[in-house]
Amino acid sequence: MATTDSADSTNTAPREENPGRNRLTEDKLAAFQSLEAEFIDSFQFLETIQGQERLTECSVAQTVRLLHALWLCECKDSLLSVPFSRGRYEGRLCLELMHGWQEGDSASVVQFLQRKLDSSPYAELTAKIGEARAKGDKSLAERLTHGRRVMLNRGFHLMLALDAIFALSDHQLINEVSSACAHLGHTPSQISAQLAEMASPLYSYAPNPRLARRNMLVMNTLGISVTSDSANLPGHRTPRVELPTLPHPPYAEHTVWGEIAVVLRAGSQASPTQLGFPPVETDAPGLQST
Q1: How far apart are the C-alpha atoms of 111 and 113, rounded to whole Å?
Q2: Which of 17, 91, 117, 140 has most Cβ atoms within 10 angstroms of its Cβ?
Q3: Is 0.90 surpassed by the pTM of this model?
Q4: Which residues contact 154 (CB under 8 A, 6 or more apart)?
Q5: Are 123 and 152 a contacting pair, CB within 8 Å?
Q6: pLDDT one-digit tens code per residue, 196-242
Q7: What stretches of the chain show up as alpha helix (H) in DSSP?
Q8: On the CB side of 13, how many CA atoms lie within 13 Å of its CA?
């Protein structure tokens, strides 16, 4: 019986997290905190370049900033271990493009810009807008019109960026690119170090509730700021995302620890893993339901 009691006592003790995993999570959070303000600024700039607003110019320095912003967004995803998103911003490629551009490789940058910004099915989209208006679907027509304007802005930015690049001689272009890269911390030697760092465990995929919560908080705030224009407000959207009219469950729910009832036969013993409702693990040290 003494042996059984000892085993039960061991089983019911709070499970400790791997110290190495805790240390990696702390390092990831600290690294993200150091670049959070710059990431927020870069994310908003990226949304502008992608067409949410229309710029009147897109200089060589702004094209370098675009590559820098994409790299920072990739850093955020890796540091906070955002699932199903690795590589979506092509941050490593952006570092390589900035390195090559300082050595005179403009063609790769131009190809990248075309792939990122050149999406122009204007005729198809215009036809869909006409169909929506003919059916009396005003909200859909407005959304499609807004999307077409975003696409047009993106196309304008591509042309402005290419015009700024093509207007300079090779020597002038390399000088401007090198100056912009140095200003943003991307000299050739810095880029080599940044590429090596992105291959380190700090940027590995290591999901953790604390990382997920940090990502949700920062992206919720950014989501509000980049969708605050009139076209994205409730009442101006398609029916699928309009204001709800039916009762919905609470916005958030919280589990109250220690409120699970367990009924066992007289004289029986069971470890937590044998219970009908085993303890629920949390990311808070030492917290378990019983």
Answers
A1: 6
A2: 91
A3: no
A4: 49, 50, 51, 117, 119
A5: no
A6: 999 999 999 999 999 999 999 999 988 766 555 555 554 555 555 55
A7: 2-12, 19-47, 60-79, 91-101, 107-117, 122-134, 138-166, 170-183, 188-198, 209-226
A8: 8
